Amino acid sequence: MATLTPKPISPFRLSSLIRLQKDPTLAFQLFQNPNPTQNPRKPFRHSLLSYDLIITKLGRAKMFDQMEQVLLQLKQERRFVVPEFIFCDVISFYGRARLLARALQTFDSIPSFQCRRTIKSFNSLLDALLNCRELEKMKNFFLGVDKYGCPDACTYNILISACCINRNLEVAWHVFDEMQRKGVRPTVVTFGTLINGLCLDFRLEEAFELKEDMMRVFKVKPNAFLYTTLLKGICGTGDLSLAFRIKEEMVGHKIKLDTAVYNTLISALLKVGRKEEALGILEEMKNNGCKPNTVTYNAMINGFCGESNLEEAYRVLDEMAEKGCKPNVISYNVIIGRLCKEGKWSEANDLFQDMPRRGCSPDVVSYRTLFDGLCGWMQLKEAALILDEMIFKGYVPLRASINKFVNGLCHEGNTELLLEVLTSLGKGILK
């Protein structure tokens, strides 16, 4: 009986398979060798779409060496001109990964692909510089903008964001004014960035005035991000009645309330002890089809721990697991911190030891919190065990905690344990 030869994969079919393949390693292998039985003298003719898809998958997975292999192969293509957006994506991937040298190298290499650099790739590199917090290099790079075209709204938005990150709102306003002088229309991102900067600087009155100008003068509608920014600023001042008016305004403008909005309100309500209202917002959140996430549950845990309601904090921890929302290390650290504060060091230690079984490894904050708690309640033998494990893991204890620990041992006259600890400390470097 003759064996059936599998039908060769076409370039169109390969694009579909790459799009559907969730594992970037398998997608890369498929891209490299779509038809293993194909005649090697007749190389596979990849489409531009398959190049775009595989570069995007590899970039998102931070598989940069493999991504560079694909770019090298793309450079040999003579059937089509490589579009600029491919390089914009690559530069953005490197910028988000804080690999500035690679981002710069990609920008410089664009002409070698017979592709012209425009304001689009310029903006991508400008944003990469911002992600890497190279604000001085941004300034120098912007001076050469004319070689690539006229600055657009995206260019100015990146510059305004840099000013706000640098807490230099006066310069941000100058950039905003220049934007208008050059005839570039501000976008909702422009206003959102400026309003965020004003809120971080506690200039809420100006933030609200700008929102009104945005709507009345510039005819730009606020989006969810802008409203969430305002909500966070308001909640920071404790004016929850105004926060709820903003929430109602969002509903009135038919802007969908997302998880960030609900999380901000829940956290603010719990901070001032309004537990019942916070639970009401949580129910509203669920009823509106907005699924609580780890941030939501951590806000609840933090709120309950803040009012020493550890029973409710544990209940939230259990609910997270039931709802398929895995608790993270912050969830546990908050409870461990509260247990230590209340002198329940044994319970804190039990929860700490139980973390790996629950699928969450302790981090440096977990170790420091428990160690400090044990020292504070003079449980020095248990503290010595945690310290030893901490140093073995490569974590550095805080100097203040060590001083408290050593002073406690000296006070007890426990010379043997003190020598053991000093030996152990010799293995680590204290901050």
Automatic annotation (TrEMBL):
Keyword check for Oxidoreductase: no
GO MF, any single term: mRNA binding
Protein keywords: Repeat
Domain of life: Eukaryota
PPR repeat copies, ranges: 152-186, 187-222, 223-257, 258-292, 293-327, 328-362, 363-397
Signal peptide residues on this chain, from the entry's feature table: none
NCBIfam families, A to Z: PPR
Family as reported in the entry's similarity comment: Belongs to the PPR family. P subfamily.
Name of the protein described by the UniProt record: Pentatricopeptide repeat
Source organism of the structure: Quillaja saponaria
